[in-house]
Amino acid sequence: MNSFRYAPDTAVVQTTQGPVRGCIAGDIASFKGIPYAHARRFHAPEPPAPSKDVFDATSFGFVCPLLSQGRPSGELYVPHRFWPQDEDCMNLNIWTPAPDGGRRPVLVWLHGGGYTAGSAIEHIAYEGENMARYGDAVVVTVNHRLNILGYLDLSAFGEEYENSGNAGGEDIIAALRWVRDNIAAFGGDPGNVTVFGQSGGGGKVTTLLQSPAADGLYHRGFNMSGVLGALMGDETQSGRDLVLDMQKRLRLKSVRSLETVPYRRLADAYLALAPRYRRAGGYTGCRPHVNSHYLGDPCAVGFRKETARIPLLVGSVFGEFSSFVPFPYDRTLDDARAEAFLRTLYGEALGDAPSLFREAYPERPLMDLVNLDTVFRAPEIEYLHLRSAMNQSTYAYLFNQDMPVDGGRTPWHCADIPFVFHNTDLIPYTWMEGVTEDLEKAVFDSVMAFARTGDPNNPAVPAWAPCRPEAESTLILDAHPRVRVNYDHALIPAAAAAQQARRLKADRNIQH
């Protein structure tokens, strides 16, 4: 029978800001909504003031305000939580087997949603309890500033705004400093911190690699579906003109007044102006800003040599955004009929993609070529090539397991998250008799081996070599895990050329 403990002398931990009190459910202690910083709008984060009062860490903290309110939808594919929003959103959550001064690996989760949306608790699969329990680890999830609060460049208006274009990134670094200074009291090892994230969270892992102020605050990186090339690229232009137009639209006397105007008015002004700037190729913010604090996309400027010793685990999902498209075609067609259909669909652009697909994915119906992701995978191949030239601790994977939706749907963006967190019990779409338990073990044990040692090899998967520039060794994760080398390097450009000729639109009603 499970037990629950919450009392004045239970799960109380002394931090640099004062005591915090969580609760213990079964064998896991949790601490929620702990402030790691506060900040004036557009300014750098500062540590919270110390207090002798005990902070009640039993409720999640505010999440960052969003530019617009989404309509709940697509919950079957990506089950969400919706939570109160406020600018004072710099807080984190901790799950630990015990706040006992142990030296457990620490995993710090950076949520998805690009750099504009999402939160540390947005997905139900982000719950850290099972990862802490089955991995004997300390799990931390972080909220930080997003969109124009976290990534709007005002540096043209004074030194105080020098890095406002990366304020959200500065928040993450502040959270990692808090972890360094406090996590030992929660049973974690501050000398063994893995930053991991999916989609925009994976992008934030790369952003940390390219941010000198983050050096020494983490020791491994795990990037899930977070290499997106130009689709999630950097800002290199000044925000001056957009900011002045926002000031004018809001009828404010000075740029400084943008600090105090109600957020909804600020967001509405941005949303009214940004489309025009986007069409003109101008600055629109809401993504990292290249400067001396953030050096830029490593595929454009190279990885910083100071990060060469950081092991990286990098991967994506077979279908990504393509799998959000309801599949209108017959997956049961044999190869000959499927190829005839695909040549009708794509025309001459199809080229030799069918034969290359069959070589890369002998287990899949040829019709799945329609849903094969190339948007993530193409830049990921380049990313792995560059990174593996720096070390022998860069590992690649692909999540390839179809899900029991619509009679079998190729895995979509976010489909692998429940397996990483050991949370398939919470997410019904993962329930596959004879598959789920073993696949979850293969994924989770690989993640935890990587977090402990920087090497994901473990008995649940076949021998898995690190990547080399000439040989990307990729673990294919499905009901039959296997390792292949450069298995899709010829396919991806051929498939991308075909798909570009007839791009299907993802279902915009699915939040991810």
Describe the structure.
The protein has 512 residues and is of the alpha/beta class. It folds into three domains: 4-67 and 81-233 and 291-310, Alpha/Beta hydrolase fold, catalytic domain (Rossmann fold); 240-279, no CATH class; 315-501, Alpha/Beta hydrolase fold, catalytic domain (Rossmann fold). Helices cover 26% and strands 15% of the residues. The protein has helices at 129-135, 147-150, 167-182, 200-209, 240-249, 263-279, 298-301, 335-346, 353-360, 377-388, 417-420, 436-453, 491-501, and strands at residues 4-5, 12-15, 18-21, 23-25, 28-35, 55-56, 91-96, 104-110, 138-142, 188-198, 220-224, 312-317, 394-399, 473-477, 482-485. The strands form two sheets. It has a twelve-stranded mixed β-sheet with strand order 1-4-5-7-9-8-10-11-12-13-14-15, with helices on both faces. α5 (240-249) packs across α6 and α9 (353-360) crosses α13. The longest helix is centred in the last third of the chain and has 18 residues, at 436-453. The chain is globular, with a radius of gyration of 23 Å.
Note the topology.
Layout: E1 4-5, E2 12-15, E3 18-21, E4 23-25, E5 28-35, E6 55-56, E7 91-96, E8 104-110, H1 129-135, E9 138-142, H2 147-150, H3 167-182, E10 188-198, H4 200-209, E11 220-224, H5 240-249, H6 263-279, H7 298-301, E12 312-317, H8 335-346, H9 353-360, H10 377-388, E13 394-399, H11 417-420, H12 436-453, E14 473-477, E15 482-485, H13 491-501
Parallel strand pairs: 3-6, 8-9, 8-10, 10-11, 11-12, 12-13, 13-14
Antiparallel strand pairs: 1-4, 2-3, 4-5, 5-7, 7-9, 14-15
Helix pairs in contact: 5-6, 9-13
